Amino acid sequence: MTTDSWTGAMIEESTARTLAAAALTAADVPGTNAQRVADALVDTSLRGIDTHGLRLLPQYLDELASGVAKAKADITVVQDRGAGLLLDADGALGVLAGLAAAGYAAERAASFGVAAVGVRASNHFGAASVYTRRLAREGLIGLAVTSAASRVAPFNGVEPLFGTNPISVAAGGDEREFVLDMATSQVCFGEIKQRRSEGRGLDPGWATDVNGRPTEDAGEATALSPLGGYKGQGLAMAVTLLGAVLTGMPPDWRLSQVGEGTPGRPRQVGHFVLALDPAAFTGEEQFTAGLGELLDTVREAPGSAGTAVLAPGDPQRAHELRRRATGIPLDGRTAELLAAYAERLEIPGPVTGQEVPRR
Questions:
Q1: Model pTM score
Q2: Among 18, 30, 25, residue whose Cα is nearest residue 347
Q3: I want to staple 136 with a disulfide (CB 3.0 to 4.6 A). Which of 167, 170, 242, 298 is the partner?
Q4: Cβ proximity of 41 and 56 under 8 Å
Q5: pLDDT grade, residue 355 (50/70/90)?
Q6: 61 CB contacts (<8 Å, ≥6 apart)?
Q7: Torsion-angle region of residue 11: left (phi > 0), alpha (psi -120 to 50) or beta?
Q8: If you average pLDDT over residues 195-203, what whole number do you get?
Q9: Dihedral angle of Cα 212, 215, 221, 225, to the nearest 10 degrees
């Protein structure tokens, strides 16, 4: 499809939260944890990051059913040096492991001014900004990275070697919010799969074929291209260093893909979360003023040909405002699966047959 809209399905925000939590609870995830995961997925979809939102719910449920993820994992501290900790996720859903890391990071940063938390033995944790925004809401600067199964060929390479290895940094809140959440590839592989299912082409520079040549055919794409060539490769390696090497987890090329793990075994994903308390540095008041000036200066910069200059997080905030009012659009497969969960659980689900904006 090449149009900006299609006849699809929508789900209202509160309905999505209830349905996702109920589906996870039915998979034996304790109620509070089920709601936490549901909220993380819905919040991500609200912000327009569809590849890491509700679309992941069926995959997470499959991992719970196969034992790749544990519904009642025991996340424990295995190394504790005060401002530095290592958690063992015990095969938990990655969202719960990431939230646990963010919680410890916030608590320790309040005491030490800085806190770094590594996580081992985890699974896919969705959008990295879930955890950095959690820290930002507490007045901290948050940074989060995670290892990921290989999808990205190194610069001048052919075979996928690195994951999309996201980096997120967040600070502030509301209109004074900075939220960077980016893959170290040109695009995430979920976007390739979505374009493939919709019969749409790829943007130039996104992916390469089996011979390492650039391709715009989603059906031919076998590897993603690193962001900015060799610079993106360097960033991907830095994320692997923090997310995998530092936490004692396997490198990207030894990880199974989401949905392809060995039954009964966690995928051994590693995360790293860092929290900085501005009060330990320039002070909260000066930091807040400086952040405001940074954001305002960028947003007020002249744009070319009538376009606006945006700060990281601005497009996602606009999506959130719109989708809270109109609902969350769903691709066909996700709508079908969510509708099946809703029917099985005898609760409301998606509404179909509406004209849905693509973005």
A1: 0.93
A2: 18
A3: 170
A4: yes
A5: low
A6: 23, 24, 27
A7: beta
A8: 90
A9: 60
